[in-house]
Amino acid sequence: MRVGNLSIHPIHATSRVVRTFADAQGFASKAIAARCIANWARLKFGRATVSQEATLRMRDVTLQVDLGRADLISYWEIWYEHTYDDLPEFAAAGADCVVDVGANIGAFTLYEVLKKKAKLVVAYEPSPTTFHRLAGNLAVNSIQNVKPINAAVGASPGELPFVDSPFSVNSRVAENGQAGAQIIPCVTLDSSLKELGISNVDLIKIDTEGYEIEVLKGATETLGRTKRLVIEVHRASEKEECDAVLVPRGFRFITRKKDLLFYSR
């Protein structure tokens, strides 16, 4: 269904809402969930919301969220719809090391640790405000085996302009001189993982709102020691660009699910 330029999927949205209320633990969390969902709807229709952090206790995880920034989107996609793990080759439990590039509030990181029992996750989130909630989610769930890093990931170390979006999942590296941009640190996977003493990687997940190829350019050594990648693409040419980087390094394209590309050795 379309309302003007807005695409709406009533059945999909209803399923998310019903399950959220079913999983929210206690009246306080159900009330917080209601406000999250109401603000998500307002943002979908381009209406302003007010930023306010709250703690939402769900059946299997506790989430610190910003009520005004639609933080539940990544939770719905990963915990309810199993976006990243319904393929056998990407569903292995007990990974030694998972790298989460574009971690947002930590929905994927939390899922890998709590559900898939990963031994270590390295989680990169560039937005200072979103990183605050990522760190809070690790603390409130008593997670010790995640290394959170407040930096963008790119082709070379340094600094980058960055813009926070009303939808936290859509925040991104900005054009130079873009209004509202803040300067944030940038690292490469090669240098950062080497500094952490990490050699082999079971899975890299990349969701950087159009900056994915730059992430791969800074991971030449890391890719040689990685088993699997899942990459969210945001433009038509990105599949071919990913293939050009990954296939010569021994990866094969497995499948595409909507905007996600799956690669494996």
What does this structure look like?
The structure is a single chain. The chain is of the alpha/beta class and 265 residues long. The chain has nine helices and 15 strands. The chain has helices at residues 10-23, 26-44, 72-80, 107-114, 128-140, 189-196, 212-217, 220-223, 238-246, and strands at residues 2-3, 6-7, 53-57, 62-66, 98-101, 121-124, 146-149, 152-153, 158-163, 172-173, 182-187, 201-206, 226-232, 252-257, 260-264. The strands form four sheets. The chain has a seven-stranded mixed beta sheet with strand order 7-6-5-12-13-15-14, with helices on both faces. It has a four-stranded mixed beta sheet with strand order 8-11-9-10.
How much helicity do the residues have?
A: 25-40%
Mean pLDDT: 90
Cα-based radius of gyration, to the nearest Å: 18 Å
**CATH first level of the largest domain:** Alpha Beta
The helix tally amounts to 9
Order of helices and strands: EEHHEEHEHEHEEEEEHEHHEHEE
Binned strand content: 15-25%
CATH superfamily placement of the largest domain: Vaccinia Virus protein VP39
Strand order of the largest sheet: 7-6-5-12-13-15-14
Specify the CATH architecture of the largest domain.
3-Layer(aba) Sandwich
Q: Sheet bearing the most strands, described?
A: 7 strands, mixed
State the domain count: 2
| Overall morphology | globular
- Measured distance between first and last alpha carbons: 39 Å
How would you name the oligomeric state of the polypeptide chains in this document? single chain
Low-confidence stretches: 1-7
- The chain-level structural class is alpha/beta
How is the CATH topology of the largest domain named? Rossmann fold
SS elements, strand count: 15
